[in-house]
Each structure stands twice: as C-alpha cells, then as structure tokens.
Amino acid sequence: MENFELCLPTKMIFGKGEENKVGEHIKPYADKILLHFGGGSVKRSGLYERVINSLKEAGIEIFELGGVKANPTLPLVYEGIKICRENDIKFILAVGGGSVIDSAKAIGVGTLYDGDVWDFFARKAVPTKSLQIATILTIPAAGSEGSANSVITNEETKVKTGIKCQASRPVFSILNPELCFTLPREQMAYGVCDMICHIHERYFTNSLHTDVTDGLCEATLKTIIRNAKILVKDYRNYNAWAEIMWSGTIAHNGMLGVGRVEDWASHMIEHQLSAFYNIAHGEGLAIINPAWMRYVFKDNIKMFVQYAINVHGVDSSLRDEEALALEGIRRYEKFLNEIGLKTKLNEIGIKDEDFEEMSKKATSFGEIGNFKKLNADDVKEIYKLAL
Amino acid sequence: MENFELCLPTKMIFGKGEENKVGEHIKPYADKILLHFGGGSVKRSGLYERVINSLKEAGIEIFELGGVKANPTLPLVYEGIKICRENDIKFILAVGGGSVIDSAKAIGVGTLYDGDVWDFFARKAVPTKSLQIATILTIPAAGSEGSANSVITNEETKVKTGIKCQASRPVFSILNPELCFTLPREQMAYGVCDMICHIHERYFTNSLHTDVTDGLCEATLKTIIRNAKILVKDYRNYNAWAEIMWSGTIAHNGMLGVGRVEDWASHMIEHQLSAFYNIAHGEGLAIINPAWMRYVFKDNIKMFVQYAINVHGVDSSLRDEEALALEGIRRYEKFLNEIGLKTKLNEIGIKDEDFEEMSKKATSFGEIGNFKKLNADDVKEIYKLAL
C-alpha cells in the first residue's frame, strides 16, 4: 500500500426535500452569494424557484449567473470572477451538475488570484485558495460535489483540462435523488459511465496490496451497474437513483484511490474528444475507456482478470487469462450498450481526421497514464481502436 | 435509503515515518499542546522520544499527561481539563489507541464546558464544541482517530458509556502501520474484533435499499478477516497491518452507516462487561456480538443469510435460511477463535452473578438496539447465551 493523505471536509446532506432548506444551510457562512446554474432545466423543474425562495427566506442577497453549458468554458468563468470581485462575494452556490459545479470552482479560485485563472489550467500556477462553494446536485456523474477537481474547456485553443485544489471542495453539498427524475435518459447514462470511469481510473493500478480499496471499488461498481439497469426499466425509482447518486460521490471523493497509484489516461484522452466535438464527457468515455482497456490490459493482466471475476461475475474456472480479461471488457461494453450508450466512434459519426492533433493535445504535458505510460503514438492507437 | 448527513473533516496522514513530522503538522494549529498518552509502551518503543523531538524541533510547548489505561476513566479526564484550563491549552495530541484518543476527546469537550464533563455522558448536556484534537494511532481498533465518538468509564458507578460530538473529530490523524509491529498479539485480536463489530453494528439493519453501503461493509469485513489471518502467521507484515489499520478507520468514520438505521446493542451490552470486569472491549465483543446474533437473527433472517454468503462465503445453494444464517455466525466465531479470541464468558472465568445488574445498567436509558429492540430481560438472555 502506498502512503497517502485524505481529507473529505464536504458536509454531505442527502435525502428528500433537503434543497428547500438551502438558505438555512448557507446562513452560517454568508449573507451574500453568487447563484450559479445552467440553462432552462432548473427553471422548468421548479428547482430554481424553490432555491430562490429558501435563500430569500434566510435573507441572503443573491447575484445570479446562469448559462453554464456542458463542457463549461472560460468566458462565463471570467464573468463570474468579475461579479464576485465587484460585489465582494465570498460564497458561490452551484445548482446543477458537474459542469456548473466545475465552473463555480474555477470562479472560486480565479476570484482570489491576481493573474488569469487559465494559468492554473495551463500549469503556470497552482491554486491554493478559493471562495467557499456549496452545491445542490442535479446530475449524478462528475462527483464534483465532493471532489477537489474542476475541468474547464478553452474553446479558442480547444484545450479541455482540469485542476485539483483542496480548497475547492464544497463546504456542503445537497443530494436529493428526486431531482434526478426529470433528467433526460441519456444524461443518466452519461453520468453512470462517468462515475464508473472515475472508479476505473483508480482501480486499474500496478500498486500491490490494495486489498480494501479494491473491494470498495468493486462494491461501488457493482452497485452502479445493478441500479442503472433498474433505472432503464423503472426511471423514477427513488432508491435506485439514491444508490447511483451516492455512488457517484464515493466514486470521486478520493476514498477509492488511496494507497494506490491512479491512472487517468482515459479521462485525458476523452477530454480532447469532447473539446473537439463538444460531445458529453460520459458519451466520450463510453467509447474511450473500453478502447484504453483493450490497448493496455496485457501490461498487468491479473488486474483485468480480477476485474472480470469480481465486478462482472465472469466464471473464474475459465483458466485462460486473456480470455477472462477480454470477457470482462466485453461485459462492460455490453452494459454500456444496455443503458443506451454507443461504444464506437463511428457510431456517433466521428472519423479519424483529428486523431493526430488530439493525440498531441492529450499528451501536451508529457506522457499520460500510470497503468501504462502512453505517448502521442499510443494515444493515437487508442483513438483508432475506438473507431 | 434513509436520509443522512456525513462530514469527514479529519485529514488522514497514512504511511511510514509520518509520525516523525508531527511537529510540522501541528504548527499551523498551535504553539502549545497537551500531549496525552498511555503507559510504558510508547516509551519502550521509542515513539515517545521521536514525537517529543519533532515537537521540540517545531518549537511547540508541551504539557504532558500520561497514564491512560484501557477503559479510560474520569479522574484522568478531570486532570487533563485542569491542565488545559490552567495553561490556556487549545490543542491536544493523543498518542496511543482508542482509550488515549477517547480520553483526549473527553478532555477536549470538558475544558470548554462550565459544568461537570460527566454531564455529557449522563445525557444531561450535549457537547457541541471541543479543543482541537490530533492523533498518532498505535492500535488499530476503536476507529476513534476518525470518529466523533468517545467512551469513558465512571469507575465509581461502574458505568461505561459514550458521547458523539462532531467537534471531537480529530483535525488530523497519523497512521503508520509500522507502529503496530510491537503490539501484543492479543491487542491485534481485540482490535480486529472491535472494528468488525463497528461494521456489524451498522450492517445489521432493517432499512431497505442499502445496496452500496452493504457492499462497502462486506468488502471491508472481508479485508479485515483476510488480513488478520495473515498477521497470525506473519506478524510483521506491513501490508497486512496497513489493510487492517485503514479498515479500522473506515469501519467507524461513519461512511459505512449512512442511509441505514444502525444498531449498537452489542456495544452497549459489552460496555457493562468491561465496566464490571475491566476486560478489553474487543475481548468482550468477541463473546457478546455472536451471542447477540444468535438472539436476534430470526427477526430479519435475510440480512443474516446475506452476511453468511457475502462475508463468509457460505454456499447459497444451501436453501435452508436458518442453517445458512447460523453457518455464517459459526464461521464468524471460528475466525475469532483462529485469531486467538474466546467466544464464551465461561472461558474467561465470568459467571452469571452480575447479569441482573449489568442488564439494568445496559438499558438504563431505555431499550437498546434497532435491529431488534432489547429490554433488560432480553439483555439478560444475551448474557446467558454468552455463558
């Protein structure tokens, strides 16, 4: 087991109706906030109105910034920073999914930084302080409600990349599974794939003696798979959403990665895909992650054998390691298809024309991944395998 | 799934040699501390000296209070409170196992309270604030290094009972598995039983739809069992200790109990045993917990069937639910015996003479447990089953 540090300071407030008390929850921290959200769905669902009412009841002054889109971009982050600075705002409430929360985190670190916030994403500076963030989660997926991470896209340079800052962890996050009932079905599928990949990025490791985290990863993966299948047939099942929603937080709060070297190549390879084609992150991962698996599995086949047996229930009496490993990957793809995801680039109309440039961008800071170190050529091969 | 709140603010610093940097870790919080510890073992092992050196290097003023014993008692807590008040100390470093940490937590809440600290334990007042606590853990067992809980024994009234206060969660805890190498073997066994029971108290529930936490509990239990067996044969195995040590924290930081109604009857029944006979908590639990299981399993047999299959690998094709459930309990007892624990009261020389009084004390605040509500008569039956 590797040495590690872990701190999970976000207060998780989980259950029905909790979003209606958000004003009370904020009161101890701030009298004035930036309310950050996305498009029309929070208004259509009535959530926006309930949040505003609760904030007003608590006497909290509200500055609003809506309009966050999937793959959140820099211009809105700059706008948020400007609003926070001009109005001396110290607290941001993000109401939405990972994109909204990540945008809020970028505003949080950018407001307290004299330079351009993109410096952090370009690895020219390291963020250490942030405005306080709280969230009301509407899409279980990114795990941003409990994580230290934020991913932003620079549309001008087509670079999508992330930062990690402990001060960005929300002070609290409200998770009400009922808010998921109105999500479009493809959002559920993207989210499920995203959280599975957050676990895969940690699970596939060459570190030895990772007994307890292996088990926690496997248990969480099995829960997500089991309950996503329930949602396919019974979309308004509260308990299935509750399992998915809480699993999404666990998947990315750090708990499942301690004591082991994590990978993260699939995420970096996918980020280029969604930066170039503006597809959803989960949509891209469903294609890239299995291709990555097929490219790397022979480098530590025992890890993939364990995965096949413990997560996908492949019969271990099949004594051919390669066949076992591949059957695990095949079952993973089959599951992704079952919940409505495509697992090949050609199925979503993407061809090989940008592979060269995307491979270079994915490796612009050097080799990526730890399970197997990947250079631009490797990444290009993975894009090809995904065709 | 039940609604819940969870916040795990303790920074966990895990790995080899970390205790030698304790001074640096404390420096951001305090210049003056109470150093709280137990008996001679921290001095014999050289840990005490290394801690003192690190603290001195960081220029931290040290007030010492040693002498904490297993089942920590009130007089030392009062002494700690007096030292902290007289010297305006705001930070306590506990170096030891659960007893030392629990004693430090009682001092922490007691110092900031005008009345008698025992008021909290007697349910006459609720603790809400504490001095800051940090720990260097030497015995993986109680989980106190990450928990909000503290258990203290009032020797005069023979009452052993606990409090829970979020402000008591340590600001940081240092966990170095190497520190376990010098633990007496019975301490390992007691600790393992204690952490298993922390999970059992959460696992056995009548709450439905507890999919992900069921899986996390089962994975952690299996890790503990597997690695304790390794230690029996290879006591200085770093990785086995690492798995046990981290599992002990997970077992009791709250993570495994969210979304479900917890039980805690076994702990309350055992507390009387160690209050009356001053045996180790883990020693008592190894006897009480299986007896509790045999008394209650028929109330929700499916939970015990799941336990037998998923934790102890009992073959599910055995279609007799009662036989399955009992086989799970039997394997649990067999494991406890394997690591050197007795599972019957008569094996440690305890007879039935105090059952009446102990049953009353265990239920002095009313019925206990949630899996099955237990009154004094039920508790007495469980003591009898444990004979």
Task: Write a structural description.
In chain A, 47% of the residues lie in helices and 13% in strands. With 387 residues, chain A is α/β, with parallel strands linked by helices. Chain A has two domains: 11-179, 3-Layer(aba) Sandwich (Rossmann fold), CATH 3.40.50; 185-385, Dehydroquinate synthase-like, alpha domain. In chain A, strands 1-8-5-4-2-3 form a six-stranded parallel sheet, sandwiched between helices. The radius of gyration of chain A is 20 Å and the shape is globular. Chain A binds chain B through residues 1-16, 18, 177, 208-209, 211-212, 215-216, 218-220, 222-223, 226-227, 239, 242-243, 246-247, 250, 255, 258-259, and chain B through 1-16, 18, 177, 208-209, 211-212, 215-216, 218-220, 222-223, 226-227, 239, 242-243, 246-247, 250, 255, 258-259.
